[in-house]
Design brief:
The protein is an alpha/beta fold. It has 14 helices and eight strands. The strands form two sheets. Strands 1, 4, 5, 6, 7 and 8 form a six-stranded mixed β-sheet that branches. A two-stranded antiparallel sheet has the order 2-3. It is flat, with a radius of gyration of 25 Å.
């Protein structure tokens, strides 16, 4: 046995202490409201949500997305031991905290940006939007057709029925814990195949070509029914989800995020602008977006919000007109956009999009957003929100030093 002073595990200037101070500044009342066990009453003592939050933020800084790995580090690494202060959270508790807290993380992201807005460190007058494809927790071989999904669903239901009958005939058959685990796995397989079957109509609709014919047979993953096969940055096609960030160009602070399973970034600007207004009660003056995100309808809708769009104009394939020439069918907002993008001012402003969006994406990749460690859009969104909170924490450190 060894006697250890937890406070001496890390130096006074170690970054983990700054992580803890940041967590202490957060309003975690939503997490505390979920605690059902109290001192003097029945129930296992809960782990302080501040500990779980700090562990996940430190894990995100270190590029760790596995709950098992963080649980192991809580026993082996000084920084994680210092955060725990003698508590030993299991990986199930860590995993549940992250996966089931998307609404709480959403509110915390809003709070972190609101604090910076209140201090005058961020103004959100000019923002950049970008999307990035992130590998889903599913293999290409897990995609099945409707006929195969129906077959697998029947097999899974038979397995559940057999395990329940076996438990009723002989409750002592094998280890009860092992049998319960087998039953849970079979029930989970039934649920995932049912979800995959429910996703097929939407997949079929997306696969229709302009003349109404199917491009290929609709298939859905039995591992992660929310995943879709998308074209990645390297040109390959893999199961993935689409992650969108809206960031302030001056400070690189992430102000809004979205996760979906659409293979295109089109029509995302308006929902993200609505989210930005819902979170912070204001519209930016200028919106910098990638050429793959632009729609003429989106430009009109953003203009009604008082937002000026800066985005490259695609060269027309059939028309002899220049892309920047105004068309007779253009609305006032679209005509203004075409004229603006032909100026040196617009080109100079638009350069900031790459410097902002690509930097934010690079930081996300460096912090472990190479492949989702969880399944489903909702859980993936929790991972992205936690990453955005961690990113904004680091930006707040830099901005505070600058001021």
């Amino acid at each position: 046995m060894m006697v250890v002073d937890p406070n001496r595990l890390v130096p006074e200037n170690d970054s983990v202490r700054a992580v803890w101070r940041f967590v202490e500044s957060l309003d975690l009342s939503a997490f505390y409201d979920q605690v059902k066990a109290f001192k003097g009453e029945a129930g296992r003592p809960p782990i302080d949500p501040r500990i779980l939050m700090a562990l996940w933020i430190q894990g995100t800084l270190d590029g760790i997305g596995s709950a098992r790995e963080i649980a192991r580090l809580c026993e082996m690494h000084a920084r994680y031991q210092w955060i725990c202060g003698g508590v030993t959270p299991g990986y199930h508790r860590l995993s549940d905290f992250r996966s089931n807290s998307d609404q709480e993380f959403d509110e915390l992201l809003t709070d972190t940006v609101a604090v910076l807005l209140h201090k005058g460190l961020v103004d959100l007058e000019r923002v950049a939007q970008d999307g990035m494809k992130v590998r889903a927790s599913a293999g290409a071989g897990s995609f099945r057709s409707e006929e195969r999904l129906d077959e697998l669903h029947q097999i899974a239901q038979e397995q559940v029925r057999f395990l329940k009958e076996e438990a009723e005939r002989d409750p002592a058959a094998g280890s009860r814990r092992r049998e319960a685990a087998r039953l849970r796995a079979a029930q989970d397989q039934v649920q995932r195949t049912e979800q995959a079957i429910a996703e097929l109509p939407e997949i079929r609709e997306r696969k229709k070509s302009n003349n109404g014919k199917k491009k290929s047979k609709a298939r859905c993953s039995t591992t992660d029914p929310d995943a879709r096969v998308m074209k990645m940055a390297d040109g390959g096609f893999r199961p993935a989800l689409n992650v969108h960030f809206v960031s302030d160009t001056k400070t690189k602070v992430i102000a809004a995020v979205e996760v979906n399973n659409h293979g295109t970034d089109l029509r995302m600007a308006v929902p993200l602008a609505e989210q930005l207004h819902r979170r912070h009660g204001k519209n930016p003056s200028q919106w910098l977006e990638d050429g793959g995100c632009v729609t003429l309808d989106g430009i009109d809708k953003l203009a009604k919000r008082g937002i000026e769009v800066f985005a490259p104009i695609r060269e027309p394939r059939s028309s002899k007109k220049k892309a920047t020439e105004v068309r007779a069918t253009d609305s006032a907002a679209v005509a203004a956009w075409r004229r603006t993008m032909d100026t040196e001012r617009a080109k100079s402003i638009y350069k900031q999009r790459g410097a902002t969006a690509e930097l934010v994406n690079a930081h996300a990749r460096a912090h472990g957003l190479q492949q989702f460690p969880v399944r489903g859009v909702q859980k993936a969104r929790s991972v992205v929100l936690l990453l955005a909170i961690t990113h904004n924490m680091r930006r707040s450190w830099a901005l505070t030093k600058l001021h």
